[in-house]
Amino acid sequence: MNLWVLRHGEAEPRATRDAERRLTARGHEQVLHSAAHLAGKPLQAIIASPYVRAQQSAALVHEALGFSEPVRTVPWLMPESDVQHTIGQIERLGLDHVLLVSHQPLVGHLVGLLEHGHLQRPAAMGTASLAELEGDWPLAGLMSLRALHMSC
């Protein structure tokens, strides 16, 4: 399985609700830069948090790649989602090549747990950072971090 984890691009600092924060112009650029690393990858699904900035990030990747399947929106990719539950949901997908678009602290904890098997070493995921993990199953400690592309 190949799992790519993308943190949304830079978002505006304030909105009525956190979930409504939109990407800035810089955030758009960051996401497009990260999307370039996904060109030619055999993605089967793009799955995103329902928050506006994650939806915008997923849509930018979708368009940049010319991806044919619609972006899937799921509640288990929100910032404070339970990491173990998220891993269970990834496993239930039954897919081999998936892009997740989400937020901190979830993305850092998810990458750290999949790579190290514990939560003591979360991955440093700045805005629009893209982690590429590979392994037989999406289980704690059983995936290898192949690359971590940091946004410019």
From TrEMBL:
**InterPro entries (UniProt xref):** His_Pase_superF_clade-1, His_PPase_superfam, SixA
Protein name stated in the entry: Phosphohistidine phosphatase SixA
- What's the source species for this entry? Pseudomonas parafulva
